[in-house]
Design brief:
CATH class of chain A: Alpha Beta
Helix content of chain A: 25-40%
Distance between the termini of chain B: 69 Å
Largest interface: A-B, 43 and 40 residues
InterPro entries (chain A): ATG101
Keywords (chain A): Autophagy
Distance between the termini of chain A: 23 Å
Radius of gyration of chain A: 20 Å
Family (chain A): Belongs to the ATG101 family.
CATH topology of one domain in chain B: Cell Cycle, Spindle Assembly Checkpoint Protein, Chain A
Radius of gyration of chain B: 34 Å
Order of helices and strands of chain A: EEHEEHEEEEHHEEH
Structural class of chain A: alpha+beta
Shape of chain A: globular
GO molecular function, one term (chain A): protein kinase binding
CATH architecture of chain A: 2-Layer Sandwich
Strand content of chain A: 25-35%
Helix content of chain B: 40-55%
GO biological process, one term (chain A): autophagosome assembly
CATH superfamily of one domain in chain B: HORMA domain
Oligomer: heterodimer
Number of strands of chain B: 6
Largest sheet of chain B: 6 strands, antiparallel
Number of domains of chain A: 1
Shape of chain B: elongated
CATH topology of chain A: Cell Cycle, Spindle Assembly Checkpoint Protein, Chain A
CATH class of one domain in chain B: Alpha Beta
Number of helices of chain B: 27
């Protein structure tokens, strides 16, 4: 299957806004792709007047926060850089036994690229583009507020972009054969002098939540594609799980 | 209509069918035919849609035209598509009935599911999006269900109501709540505007050779060997996931629209806002005007094809609501809510059962409470009684309720409200320092105005309970306490009495206001300790004469430690008292007028029938000792602007006082009839 890629609009953020922006975007994407039974929870952004939706899974939320913290840590060490967070959905193929071990093949069917331009507030006075002198006092606050308003508007656009992309026919068709539980891979590509630095993460929605830094060392349970409607026996099991408040396996 | 089980046992099916109303209920041969059909469906169905089994019997019974159970299932899915759409939309647009942000535990224990069998799924889990019940959605959809899949047009309407205070509003009338509550809408001007229009449509294909049919057949050929029915089923299996994603998108999208922000504010804010959201559901689309069309944006979700049609969901919404929401909402502190003030369940009413009853029961409404923060206490004193105000019941002190009551409890005014003694109004009392800490607002939502205020410096918080509370109030800060008490109790404002009395604490003259109970009250009042060496009690001889006058005027001080006063209060119901107070407040004169009046000589306010305190001022020659300075100070105090933060702080204190009063109610109930406390029990600091 072809891998659908969605490049989200670049957002200009300051370090204090990274967590809020990434949480909003990542949870929105996952909410569109975790097709099991969910009990949505509304979450208010801390820095913006935007309400996004959680799946209601604490493990996912915890892992997302953990990886966002790693990204933020990297940003602190490399300020004023453009970063990219990639959220990939893939299907795990059967392991291929080789001389050197089992090789897990992943078939990516969808990737979301979250582009962030992180500005360092300390050096932000010198505009990245115009090299204008550092503005002080009221001008700085006005610039900050205007930048914040622009970011909020851009974040709105990104969320609309996610909604449109998630509902495209060519995208949703891929889901017919995909897992009820999705493996997805999130990595941060941080270009430092054009040298990509990968901070990998693998996350699974329930059942296979083994969080590791690099994917190649993880051995995940292979979830077979489940035809949701064809196996009443399985459905009864699934239904029980739903009744108990779990995701459907 | 809800069936609790999808059991395949014929007997269960029969019983379920027989329980159905409408066309599902039948007798004789038709029942048998239903039984057969039900049995057929349950046995032949190789797979299950969540929750579909539950309603399938209904579909089979009501739609005998279904050629196959799969078709019925498809129709059911379409019906649930409409229901889910309506649910999501109204859940985030209908204030006070939203079910969002529930906890998992609540969901698990929620009785929303009507099914008793684990094999079926309640409605709210359709499309794997578990939502709590939304009464508005359920109610409206049941009505729409009969429309046979006509377009579902949901208009979200923004209603703006003008805040028109109605002074003649009777007790129990609307007190400027959020207008989606109990207000009499017909009496208030309002305008409305459609801010969103959601359209859910199912367009049936006219041609059998549509693309969808090709896709369906292709799907069927690929999976099931070419059966048309099974191909439809397989196709629907694949499209069901698209439904899931669409509703996820809808759930997210609806929270990004401008109207959601207003909905969130209305749902979460305690402010009384002239704006409210409502909805209208219809099956026809009424076009917007060109002007409205230009202001609106449109978003259409990707339509989902079905074997026999296409489901589409679109929305037109206003890009911005700022121009509509330009009118600021009134702060809650300005408004009075009858439930809080006039609630019969609040203890202060029982506390004040001994207080003189007011002839009427005004609604506890004051639309000018905010002015109390900036009101000078002298203005309170200067305000002639307004007959419409409850205080006028007792020919109380202040016609302007906002002047009378709040000024007494003004946290920043360290001088008591000088009703009868404008020159003394600005006198500061050493208890004033603690006044701010303890004096709750009588008009706070959590503090019934009938509740005696917790006076500052009061060591015994329970003192503010009816008779005994009157005494304690007089001890600490009688003016404010009495004012509060007056406005809260049986409709009589004893503001002036205590105000004057308190004002004399500093200046010396005893301003013992008349209690309607008579001389006994005067004597009791004379026993009230003062915060200063000079107290009103020391002036009791001069005050006693005035008390008689007050007694004639029917003036009553709820905080007076007079048995007769409390006994007279028992004659009136709490509602009547509160209503009288509110009536007085609503018909009170503007603050500024009172402020002007305050600066005038005391003689201006002479009114035997309405302002006994002023009368007393005249009679009290000692009051003239320092009129000018007092008036100047009072004017400065009156003119001092109060910030919202200070007002809120005082409001908090009022609430604390109310709470303490309520707690003391039970323990002090027996003290009401025991008379005043002795002066030796003065708790003043």
């Amino acid at each position: 299957m072809n891998c659908q890629t969605c490049q989200l609009k670049e957002l200009v953020v300051v370090p204090t806004e990274i967590q809020d922006v990434l949480r909003c975007i990542l949870h929105t994407i996952i909410f569109h792709r975790a097709l099991g039974l969910v009990r949505p929870q509304d979450v208010e952004c801390e820095h913006f007047e935007i309400t996004y939706v959680h799946c209601g899974d604490h493990e996912i939320e915890k892992k997302i926060d953990e990886k966002i913290d790693q990204f933020v840590g990297w940003v602190e060490k490399h300020p004023n850089r453009k970063g990219q967070v990639c959220l990939s959905f893939y299907e795990v193929k059967n392991k291929h036994a080789t001389w050197f071990g089992n090789k897990i093949e992943r078939l990516y069917w969808e990737q979301w690229y979250i582009n962030l331009h992180v500005l360092n507030p300390k050096s932000h006075g010198k505009s990245h583009y115009t090299k204008a002198p550092v503005s002080t006092g009221e001008n700085a606050s006005e610039e900050s507020s205007s930048r914040h308003a622009a970011l909020e508007s851009s974040l709105h656009e990104v969320l609309f972009q996610i909604i449109r992309f998630a509902n495209e026919k060519k995208t949703t068709f891929q889901l017919y054969k995909t897992l009820r539980l999705y493996h997805f891979h999130m990595r941060s590509q941080l270009q430092v002098h054009q040298t990509p630095l990968l901070v990998g993460m693998l996350m699974c929605l329930r059942g296979c939540c083994r969080l590791d830094i690099l994917p190649c060392s993880v051995d995940y349970k292979i979830m077979q594609a489940i035809n949701y409607f064809s196996e009443p026996g399985l459905y009864s099991v699934v239904n029980e799980a739903e009744e108990k408040g779990h995701f459907v396996h | 209509m809800e069936l609790g089980s999808g059991s395949s046992r014929p007997s269960d099916q029969e019983s379920e069918v027989s329980l159905l109303g409408g066309p599902c209920t039948a007798s004789g041969p038709s029942v048998n035919s239903l039984k057969l059909r039900s049995i057929y469906v349950s046995v032949s169905m190789p797979w299950r849609f969540p929750g579909l089994t539950r309603n399938l019997w209904i579909e089979m019974a009501t739609s005998p035209s279904h050629s196959s159970p799969e078709s019925a299932i498809i129709e059911q899915v379409i019906t649930e598509f409409f229901a889910k759409s309506l649910h999501i939309i109204l859940e985030s647009r209908s204030p006070y009935v939203s079910s969002r942000n529930y906890s998992v535990d609540q969901f698990m224990s929620s009785p929303s599911s009507s099914c008793s069998s684990s094999s079926s799924m309640p409605r709210d889990k359709w499309f794997n999006l578990a939502l709590r019940d939304c009464p508005a959605a359920l109610e409206n959809f049941d009505i729409w269900r009969k429309s046979n899949l006509e377009p579902l047009v949901i208009d979200i309407i923004l209603i703006r109501r003008a805040l028109v205070p109605d002074v003649a509003r009777p007790l129990g009338g609307c007190l400027l709540r959020n207008f989606s509550g109990n207000c009499d809408l017909a009496r208030e001007p309002k305008s409305w505007k459609i801010v969103e229009r959601w359209i859910v449509q199912y367009e049936r294909h006219k041609s059998s050779s549509s693309k969808n049919h090709k896709d369906v057949r292709k799907c069927g050929t690929k999976n099931n060997g070419g059966s048309s029915c099974s191909s439809e089923t397989a196709f629907y299996k694949k499209t069901y996931k698209r439904y899931i994603i669409l509703f996820r998108s809808l759930y997210v999208f609806i929270r990004l629209l401008p109207t959601y922000k207003l909905f969130h504010e209305l749902n979460s804010s305690g402010q009384i806002c002239p704006l409210s959201l409502s909805h209208r559901i219809s099956s026809s689309i009424q076009p917007f005007t060109q002007e409205d069309e230009a202001k609106m944006s449109q978003f259409t979700f990707v339509p989902i094809d079905t074997p026999r049609g296409r489901l589409s969901l679109s929305v037109q919404y206003l890009r911005t609501l700022e121009d509509i929401r330009s009118e600021p909402s009134a702060p809650l502190s300005v408004q009075f809510i009858l439930d809080y003030v006039g609630s019969p369940t609040t203890d202060p009413f029982r506390r004040l059962k001994s207080l003189p009853s007011a002839p009427s029961s005004p609604a506890l409404v004051s639309f000018t409470r905010q002015h109390s923060w900036s009101n000078d206490h002298g203005a309170l004193a200067s305000v002639p009684l307004c007959p419409s105000v409850a205080c006028s019941e007792a020919r109380g002190i202040c016609c302007n309720p906002s002047l009378c009551l709040p000024s007494l409890i003004h946290r920043n005014d360290h001088s008591p409200p000088v009703i009868s003694e404008p020159q003394n109004a600005a006198v500061t009392h050493k208890n004033n320092m603690s006044f701010d800490e303890f004096w709750p607002s009588p008009f706070s939502p959590t503090l019934s105005p009938s509740s005696p205020a917790h006076l500052p410096g009061q060591r015994s918080p329970n003192a503010l309970q009816s008779g005994s509370s009157q005494i304690d109030i007089a001890k600490a800060h009688p003016i404010t306490a009495s004012q509060t008490q007056a406005c809260s109790s049986e409709g009589k404002l004893q503001i002036q009495m205590d105000t004057v009395r308190y004002g004399n604490y500093q200046t010396g003259p005893t301003i013992v206001k008349g209690f309607p109970s008579g001389k006994d009250d005067t004597e009791k009042l004379a026993e009230l300790p003062s915060s200063s060496t000079q107290g009103p009690l020391s002036r009791s001889p001069s005050g006693l004469s005035l008390l008689d006058k007050f007694d004639d005027s029917g003036f009553a001080c709820p905080f007076a430690d007079y048995k007769d006063v409390t006994e007279s209060c028992n004659r009136r119901s709490p509602h009547a008292v509160v209503g009288a107070v509110v009536q007085m407040l609503m018909t009170a004169a503007p603050l500024r007028q009172d402020l002007y009046n305050l600066c005038r000589p005391p003689q201006v306010f002479m009114d035997e029938s309405l302002n006994p305190c002023v009368q007393y001022d005249q009679a009290n020659t000692e009051q003239s000792e320092c009129p000018a300075s007092t008036s100047e100070t009072l004017a400065s105090v009156l003119l001092k602007s109060k910030t919202a933060a200070e007002g809120l702080e005082e409001l908090r204190r009022y609430k604390e006082m109310k709470e303490s009063i309520l707690k003391q109610g039970a323990s002090r109930s027996s003290d009401v009839d025991n008379g005043p406390r002795s002066p030796g029990n003065n708790d003043q600091s």
